[in-house]
Structures are given as C-alpha cells and as structure tokens.
Amino acid sequence: MPHGVIEQIPRFLTWYNAAFLLRAASFTLALSAVGSVVGILAGGAIAVLRRTRGWALAPLRGLGTLYVELFRRIPFLVTLLLVFYATQLGGYDMPLFAIGAIAVSLISTAYLAEIVRAGLASVHPNQWHSAAVANFSFMQTLRLVVIPQAWSVVLPPAFGFFIMFLKDTALASQVGVVELTYAGKTLNNRGFAPVLTFGAVLLLYFAMSYPLTLLGRRLEVLVARPRHR
Amino acid sequence: MTYTLQFGQVTRYLPFLAEGGLISLALAFLAFAGGMVLGLLGAMGRTFGPRAVQRGVQAYVVFFTNTPQLVQIYFLFFVLPEAGILLSPFQAVLLGMTLNAGAYLTEIQRAGFATVPRGELDAAETLGMSLTQSVRLVILPHVVKTLYAPLSNQYIIMVLGTSMAAVFGVEELTGRAFSVNAETFRSVEVFSIVGAMYIVLTLIATLALSVVGRLMFRVRMPTL
Q1: ipTM exceeding 0.90?
Q2: pLDDT score, position B11
Q3: A5-223 belongs to which homologous superfamily?
C-alpha cells in the first residue's frame, strides 16, 4: 500500500467531495434512465414495425432491421465520438449531456428492439392467427393478445440490459460528460490517491447497480409464468 | 456553415486501421482465453468448492459484474504503479479485461455446469473419477455444446469492449482512429469508417465462430 493513503482519508471524506460524487452519480442515473426510456419506446416501435405485413412498409422494415443489426456491432465509444463530432458539424454548441443522451439512446434503441423482437417472437403464431380470425386489427392483436403474453419474456433481459447500461455510460466521461467516472478522474487529478478516488467510484457504481440486479431477480421470479401449452 | 465530407483523406489510412482491427481481435482473444481459465476455475469453485471458496467466487462475480469495466481498468492503471507494479497500457488493459471477463464467464460456465444431470456426476464418482477427471471427461463434453452460443456471444461483446483500450493509449482500432483523427482532423469521416470496420470485424468473427461451431461441435447458430 502506498504511503500517505491513510492520512489522506480525512481530507478525502469531505462534504464537498461527497456532494460532487453524488451529483455526478445522479447524472449517471439520469443518462441511463434517458437511454432506457427512449430505448424501450423507440426499440419497441422498431420491433412492432418489423412484425407488420404488406408492401407499403417494406422499406421501413428493411431500414429497421439494418439499424438494429448495424448499431449492435459498433462499440459505444465509437458511437459516442461519432455523435460528438457529427453534432458539431451543424456549427452550434450542443450540451455535452445531450450528446451523451443521444449516443446512449441510439445504442439502447438497437438492443431493446432486438429484445422486444424476441419477446414478440415467443408468442405462438397461432395466437396471431386466431386473433386474425376473430377479426382483430393489427393494433388490437398487439394490445390484447401479444403484449400481455410477451412482456414477461421481455422484462428480464430488458432489465439486465438497463443494468449493463448503467455501467456503459462510464464511457461518456470520454467526451466530457460530468458523470461518475469523470468525477473520479477529476478528483484523481486534484491529487487524491487513485485507490480512494476510483475505489469510491467503484463503490458508488456498485451501490447503484447491485440493488437493481437484486430487484431484477425478484421481478424475474414474479413475472415468470408456467410455460405449458 | 457547410461541411463537406471528404473520405479521400482518410482512405489512405485504411491498412493502418485494418491492422488495428487485428490488434482488437487479438486483445479480445487473449482476454477471452484468460477469462475462460478464470471462469472455469470459478465455476468449479462455485459448484464443488467448500463454502468459503463459494462465497469468495460469488463476491468476485458480483463485484465485477456490477461495476463498469472502464473504471476497473482505471483503478488498475493508476493503483498498480503506486504499489510498485509497472504495466504497459496494453498489459493493464488486458489484465482488467481478463478479470472482468472472468466474472462473466464464471457465471456462464456455472450455468452450464448446472445443466449436467446429477446422475452423471454420481456415476463418475462411482467409477472412482477424481474431481478434475469428472470435470474434464463428463462435464465439459456436455456443456461445450450448450455453452458454445453464449460463449461466442460473449466474445463478440468483448471485441466491442476492446475499444475502451484506446482510452489508455493502446493502439488498437479505436486507438489508431484517435491517431488518424489527430493527423487529418476529419473526425466524422474517421469515426464513421471505424464504425463500419467494427461492423465488418464482428461479422467476420460471428461467421468464423458459427463455422467452427458447426464443424467442431455440431452447434447450429443463427448466422446473423
């Protein structure tokens, strides 16, 4: 253990540093919340779009599939930098948090579209057919037949994805969004021992992620339905 | 203000970038291989070890899967030198990625172990097999087929994860993109080309893995 770490602890554990880290942690949470909400809405829309039939929507379906397949194969850091530089092309300054939120949403939409697609696919085709026989419209079939059966399949992986996201937002520190990792780097630059700064950051991430993991496990048990047909 | 995209200035760096792509694949492979060994030990400890070992493995998995890989590497990168251990950026990133992968791969392999019917383990014990023998001769042949798809998925995720090595100055695909960006100032062009290269890279990796899986383990995976 390097000398001086123990002596630094009282100087590190100040209200100011605690407030700084907690505020940064709230930005991490906000960033992942934006990603999750946009992801589930836009991703859900893409997944539903890909289930439609008919020629009119064929190009949109193709675009949806292309989007999902491509954006799941680009690292988050590269997407982030691409959004960062592309938003500067217009010549106006965009807040860094907005850049982070756009990049996060782009990626989460692609992943959640895939998760929702798998959920929709888990509902047996007969269900679609019987709904059609009962003269349900496409939206009625979704709302009354498919979604009530699909959501318990969607929820566990979607929740796992949200938790993964909470950790992936750490990369947003690279374009200067002041979230938890960036705060850790700042404190490190102020001369505190890295054991303390990054240790505190690791603990804070853990404090956010672990309760969510436990909650996800509870939810999984709650929504798991006996699958027999 | 208008900005004209000029890919021409970046295309001459393509071979340089492609080489970086190979470094990314190699980094992911090394970390994956190390993580598989850690994961196998972890899964064995978690399944057959005494209670203290089970707890220890569980703590390792829970801690590493609930904190960001980037911060884990930051921690190693800055703390190890203070403790007198000097690692190159590549070594530090590799160490961090291996430890991180080890946690996820422990979880995956433990789940695989759980699919082996209890009776087969009892049979192995009756035949007088040692623990390592029954893992090697009974469990592994079983789980290779079940685990091939989730493991190759994990490898693809790790290939994408290598991009954060650039943060520490490793010259893999994203790291080289930083260099090209600094030389040409064609940021949008550089990073869209690099994004496309990651797509190609992971597509090649997926294809190769599904061919290997089909030929060696008779596993059928969806190609896309």
Answers
A1: no
A2: 85
A3: MetI-like (1.10.3720.10)
